[in-house]
């Protein structure tokens, strides 16, 4: 995944022609230069956003965890990682989303434990 929007823009380079204007052979075809294509909006959407991250952090501090996340923390406290993953998978709809959420909740628990010490 690309880290920054500027990096995406940098990668938009014009590549030289592969064709050499020959009729046959490996480099056959009319000699052209490829134009740079604009960046796919979906790629731009997936970029890390600082403001959004800060906003989510504040919301988490104020509102706290949702009920299903609280249950996941309870499952993780008693070393039931697999069960927590199954629970998250059912609530979120896919295995990958469940894995991400389990990892997020477990890192949050680790941070809280480090703060208490």
Description:
This protein has 6 helices and no strands. It is mainly α and 117 residues long. The longest helix is centred in the C-terminal third of the chain and has 22 residues, at 95-116. It is elongated and about 70 Å long. The mean pLDDT is 85.
Give short descriptive properties of this protein:
mainly alpha
Instruction: Please report the number of helical segments.
Output: 6
Secondary-structure element order, N to C: HHHHHH
Shape: elongated
Distance between the termini: 36 Å
Class from helix and strand fractions: mainly alpha
- Uncertain runs are none
Strand-helix topology:
Blueprint: H1 5-10, H2 41-45, H3 50-63, H4 67-77, H5 81-92, H6 95-116
Helix pairs in contact: 4-5, 4-6, 5-6
Summarize the structure.
By secondary structure, the protein is mainly alpha-helical. The chain has six helices and no strands.
């Amino acid at each position: 995944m690309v880290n920054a929007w500027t990096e995406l823009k940098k990668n938009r380079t014009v590549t030289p022609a592969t064709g050499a204007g020959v009729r046959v052979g490996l480099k056959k075809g009319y000699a052209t230069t490829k134009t740079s294509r604009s960046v796919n909006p979906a790629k731009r959407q997936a970029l890390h956003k600082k403001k959004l991250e800060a906003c989510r952090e504040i919301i988490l501090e104020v509102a706290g965890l949702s009920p299903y996340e609280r249950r996941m923390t309870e499952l993780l406290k008693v070393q039931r990682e697999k069960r927590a993953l199954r629970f998250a998978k059912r609530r979120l709809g896919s295995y990958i989303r469940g894995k991400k959420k389990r990892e997020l909740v477990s890192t949050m628990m680790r941070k809280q434990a480090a703060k208490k010490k």
